[in-house]
Every structure is written in structure tokens, then in C-alpha cells.
Design a protein that fits this description.
The complex is a heterodimer. By secondary structure, chain A is of the alpha+beta class. Chain A folds into 3 domains: 114 residues, no CATH class; 115 residues, no CATH class; 172 residues, no CATH class. Chain A has 17 helices and 12 strands. Chain A has a 5-stranded antiparallel sheet with strand order 1-2-4-5-3, with helices on both faces. A 5-stranded antiparallel sheet of chain A has the order 6-7-9-10-8, with helices on both faces. In chain A, strand 1 and strand 2 form a beta hairpin. By secondary structure, chain B is mostly helical. Chain B has a single domain, classed as Amino acid/polyamine transporter I (Up-down Bundle), CATH 1.20.1740.10. Helix content of chain B is 74%, strand content 1%. Chain B is built from 16 helices and 2 strands. In chain B, helix 4 runs antiparallel to helix 11. The chains are: A alpha+beta, B mainly alpha. The interface between A and B is medium-sized, with 33 and 36 residues.
Amino acid sequence: MKIETIDSKVSTIINALGSSTPIKVKKISIGKDPSIQGAIIYIDGLVDKNIINRDILNPLMIQITSSIELNMDTSSFLCSNYITADCSFIKGNTEEVSKNIKNGNTLLLIENIEDYVMIDTTGGAIRQVSDPMNETSLRGSRDGFVENLEVNISLLRRHIKDSNLCIEKLVVGRRSQTDLALVYIKDLVNIEALDELKERINAVDVDSVTGMGAFQEFIDENPYSPFPMCFATERPDRVTPNIMEGKIAIILNGSPFVLTTPSIFIEFFHTVEDYNERTILANFIRMLRYIAVLLVITLPSIYLTLIKYNGELIPIEFVVPVVQSRIGISLSPFMEILILEILMEILREGGLRLPSKIASTLSIVGGIIIGNAAVQSNMVSPTTLLVIGITVVASFAVPTVDMSISIRFLRFPMLFLANSMGIMGIATGYILLILHLSALENYGIPYMEFNMDELKDTFVRAPLWKMNARPKIISDRNVNRQTNFMSKLRRKKND
Amino acid sequence: MTKKYRKITSVQLFFILVGAIIGMGVTSLPADVVSISKQDGWISVLIGGIYPLYIVLVGGIIIKRRPDSNIMDLSKAYFGKIIGNIFNIFFMLTFLFYIVLVISGSSNQLRAYSVYFIPHFKLVMIFAAVSCYASIKGLKVLSRLTTITFFLLCVIILTSSVSFKSGSILNVKPFFGAGIPKILEGSLKTNFAYAAMELLLIIYPYVQDKKNILKASLFSALVVIFFHTWIVYVSIYFSGPDLILKQLWPFSFVAESFKIPVINNFRFMEMVIWIAMAYKTMSIEFYAATKIFNNITKIKRKTSCFLLLPIIYIFPLFLENEVIRRDFGGKVIPWITIFNITYITIIALLTLLIDKKRLRHIQKKGENL
């Protein structure tokens, strides 16, 4: 025991917290004849005041009718007999105490006792778990991540009850002190990737981490690539299968997006529905998606090549309509396509942040009036408008936002290459694209590599009961995830 | 990069070898063989397949005895540094010669088929720059590239089978009608199409599963032989030996017969795929050349890519005319083939003769030098 008045203890804590932060301090007397002096310290807005009143103040101030002996065990005695909320003890370390208070815990101080008693009173307003707005799905689950780290971890825990589930907490940002959690399954995760990820997170030395996107950029291995290297999602039912494949989930406090890493190129084109639909239908839709991607990247460039250089390759039935529609057009084909493409991107960007009431005006003015007027004023030909329209519609088929932007971006370099080199440009563009994708690596794992035994869930999806092995490309530990149970159910030939 | 992914798998070796051998040049292969062995050209191609098979089998001896050092190291160990390096320089020149032929050939064909508006020197520049960029990226990236292009090649081969409805079996009959001597003579013409199998002897130390190297490379040789035979057979079947002689690229003619309603004819897609094929072949061959250069001079491979870049840019410029290019190639290729066969056979024989203990000694000495 150390003789120290309650006032000096309070001022120590206030100094540790920073004297200019608004802090609530309430002094209390515990027990009767004689009572001992104590105080509780918390930050308004982060705590649930009901818990403080019901579980701390009420028992300590009213329910204790006798005197309390002051000794080493007083605090644990109070915790086990009177305080009904969750308690923990910290010795000496005021840094940790202040961190706990900033996270919404309440500190109980008792005069002459060295221990700091932290009581869990976390509360305050948190957004309710709800259907993720930006990633709707027809047959997936209806819960989405929220901005709170603990809630997000609990959402994942509900899906994975494995005892090897490992949740590691880290802190990033010198001033923002943002909490971060790595979630993975200990005996599945790729250890080399995990080590490298931790090394990168520990190396992050910035004032503040404002959001998931910024954090993603800090730990990115290929920051100049247009492709997303980590998979960000709002849906727990997308993170869970990824963790089950041996990937690592990164949850950042304050962000409703959870990252999974190391990611591979092809997973950005998969959706929850792929696994909730029947195999054949899911594959059909997946194929449509890949066709859409090819259309977005190449359709404008192919069209440009055909009308600019290789007119002989236009199907004979189309030649007359295409040529007729181009009579009297003032812009060159390239400028025409480029201007329309940029216009479409502007429309999309404008519509993204507009309130829904104004957005309808935008779609009328942008889509109908400009489209119509552009053709009637002979600025662009109707065929070009059709081609660009198809491209824009096809770009909506890419399920992930990050990848959708990358794919949309790619058609511009492709267009420039096609304008300068025709077919050669398109082929060169694709070769450079493939080379770039093949050269990318994410924590030692190739971004795009097709191995024979891992084709089961790439371009098409095999029936789920046939995917007995985890993708080895991500982690080669405990590869078997299921046995070939369907064979047991198969009827014998003679039956 | 983790250690696991630094080496290629044996399946990737298969793709690389097929990719190195089959390029845009196969479209002209039917014209070369049919000029001598007429309707039996496909049999010539089948016989010509002995060359890659021989390289694989002889290479098998080297791979089994010395799984960790490539042919350049062995030649330095056996012949001493100076003579060994002279051989290696010749070996490197063969690859550079292949690239020069491939670049100029691809450019000639492309200008005839679709990109008539790009002059020869610009096309060569693009080809050289992209293949230099690709080979800087290294073997692993090339293996991923060839995996994809292999399936593109399969698309072309598959679509060519559509021509079966419009061709005639009379075009390939009578079998062996040209006579055995002509067929054998024709098979010598396939040397260039089958070239670049020697790549195996440069890259085998970088394969993960050593046991499967021979299997994968044998399989790749067989697949190449099958593809080549198929290509020539289909071309003869579709156009007949007389029409083939009048074309420079008979196989492209076959692929164009495949008509899809909206895309009109297959030429656009076919051209895109052939350009991809050409890029891939050049990149691998350039990788091989720079690998040997790196082994001889110990200059970093990335730097040696830039050092050799002028060669693959300047020399194709002289081969702007397709007929001259084929004439030139026809004169030089037999010598290259003879050199390759002798070089690889001698190294294999020496590997067999010199016992391991002494070899290790020589090897160490060579490395120290």
C-alpha cells in the first residue's frame, strides 16, 4: 500500500489522458463508518451511463452498508462482491489505463491503493448490423460489417467456431491509435504471408490511418499497379470462406470494410451467388461476367480498329448501315469514342454522390438528352453510341467495386493502342496486361497463376462437393477440407 | 518472393517448351514442306519430329547425370573456359538467329494480313521492345504467359477442324505418293518449325520436381509434333498441294474459313491470337539468349537484355521481304541444326563418359575460374 490521496491519483490520470480532453470525474464514498474515498473516471459519449449507474455507482454507494477494510485485496473484494460489470486490474501503467479509458472503459480509483480497476462500460451509439448497402445479394446472408471492431469480430466469430481461430490485435497510427485486428485460422494460414503482412503493418509509421483504403495503400506491395491487391468487402459471408482458405482478414476500427489478403486476381470476379446457386446456373452467370469483362476492355477498341483500319473485316451486312451512319460525322472515330467514354465516366461519377432526387434529373439530361442530341447534331454516329452503351452496361457486371474501376480504366490505354496500331495494338495491350498480371505478387503469392489442380474455382466452379482440397496456391497446410462423401451416397451398380 | 514460387513446375515447363517451339511460323510450315513432299507433307512433319525427340532424349542423359547445372556450365567444365564459351556463344547466336527470323517473319505476315499501315521498322521495334520487357520479367512470368497462350493455341487448332466439312480427302491422297526420298527431304524443311527445343537444356535446373522433367519435355515434344502434323494435314486437306504452293501462309487461309455470323470471319481473332503467339515465342527465345549471355559474361540478366536488344532490333530490318527471309533462313537453319545436334550430343557423351567424381572436380574448377 502506498499513501496517496484521491485527488493526486485523479490528477495523475488526467495528466496521462491529456489535460485538454473533456473527462468526467465523479468522486464517491464507499461503505459507511468510516467510508473510503474513491473516484470514477470516464469519457462522455464512449460509455454506457446505464451500466455505470446500475453496476458501479449503485452497488458501491448504496448497497455497501458496513465499513470496508483498506488493504491489498480491497479492489478485488469490491469487484467480486459489489461491482456487477466486468472488471480487470492494471498495476502502475498509466499509459495503458488512459488507452482503456479512451476505448470506453471506466476507471475506478480507490485512495491509498495502487491498482487501477478498469470496468467495461463500453457503449455509445453504434450503427446497427444491417444489410450491406453497396454489396447486395439475392441469396446471401443479410448482415454486414459495421464501424466497430468488436462487433465485426463477433460477426466473424459467429461464423467460425473453430478453436484455432486466431484474433491478433494491433494498433496503427501514431496519433489516431487506430485498433486493428488480424483474423486467421492458425493451422491453415500461410505463415510466410502472415509474417510479411505483420512486418508491413508494423512498419507503417503515419500520424493517422483514415480508412481502409488508406491502410490498404500503406501495406500494398505493388502500389503502382491499377489492380486491387486486397479484397475489401462488407459481407461476413464473403470473409468467412476466405479465412477458411487460409487467408488473413484485416479489420480496422472505424471501417465497415474488411480486407482479406493475399488475394488473387480471379476472386474479384466471384460473388456470393456463385456458391448459393445451382452449379450449372452459377457457371453460366460466371461466364457471362467474363464475357462482360472482355467486352469492357476491348469492344470500343475493336470497333475503332474496324472502322479506322480494317474495314474489310466488318461483316458484309453491317457495312452499309455503319458507313451510312457515319456520313457527315464531324469527329474522327477515335475522338468520337474517347469523348463518349469520358462523358460516360463523368455521368457515372456525378450520379455516384448525388442525392437520389437529383440523380433522376442527371439520368434524364445525361442519358437521354445528351445521347439523343449528340446523334442528331452529327457529333457522333448512332453505332458508336450503341457500342459505348454496351460497354457501359457490361461494366456493371463486374461485381467488385475496386476491380470494376480497374477494368474500366484499362479500356483507355487499350483505346490509345488500338488507335495507333490497330489489331496489333489490341494484341500488344493484352500481352502487356497478361505480363503485368503474371508479374504481380502479393506477400509471395502469385496474383495470377493457373495450376491444373486449382482450376476448380476460377473461370468455372466445380460442384461444391467436389472441391475437396483448399487452393494450394494460398496455403499448403492442411489442404483437405472435406472428404469425398458423395461417393458414399452413390448407388451401387447392381441396385 | 518466397522460395517455393521461385522455380517453375514441370507442367509449366511443358507449356514453356510448347510455347517456345510453336509460334506464328507454323502458318507457313505447310508451304515449306508441301513444296517438296506434295500431299505427303504431313508425313514429313511427323518424321521431322525426330529432331525434338532426339534433343529431349539426349538431354535426358544430361539432366539425369547433372540435374543442377545447365548446358553452358557443363560445356565450360568439359572444354575449359575459352573453348566452352566459344561453343556457348554459338549456342546463343542460334537463339538470336531464331528471334531475328521470328520477328521479321511475324512482321511480314502481319503487314500482309492486317496491319498494312505500320511500316516494317516500327513493327520490329514494337516486337523487340515487348519481348525485351517480357524476358526481363523472368522465367516464372514467362511460364504464366505461356500457360495462357497454350490454350489460345488450342482454340486455333480446334477451330481449324471446322474446315473438315469443306475440304476433301482426295487432297491428301494418295498416301506416300510422293515417294519416300521426297518425304525425307521434305522433313529437313521442318527444322525451323521444330527449333528451340534446346531451351530445355538451359532451363532444366529451374524446375521444382526434377523427376518429371523428362516426362514433361517428352510430352511437350509429342504435343508439338501432333500440332504441327495436324496443322499441315488440315492445310493440305483444305487447300490441296497445288493451292498451298501459291500461298505464303496456308494455315491462316484454313483458319479464315471458320465463319461466325456476327464476327464475320475468324481473321480478327486469329490475328490477335497469332500476335500473342509471336510475342510469346520471341520473349522465350530472347530469355534463352540473355540467359546464355549472362552465363558467359556474368553481366546481370536484366542488363544483358538491354545489351542484346539492338541485335534483335537491327537484324530483322534486313529481312523485310518474306521470300528473301525464307531463302536466307533455309540456307542457315540446316547448319544451326547440325551444330545443335553435335553440341548436345558431345556434351551428353562426355557426361556419360566422365565419371561423377572427376566431373565434380572439373565443375568446381570451372566455377572458380
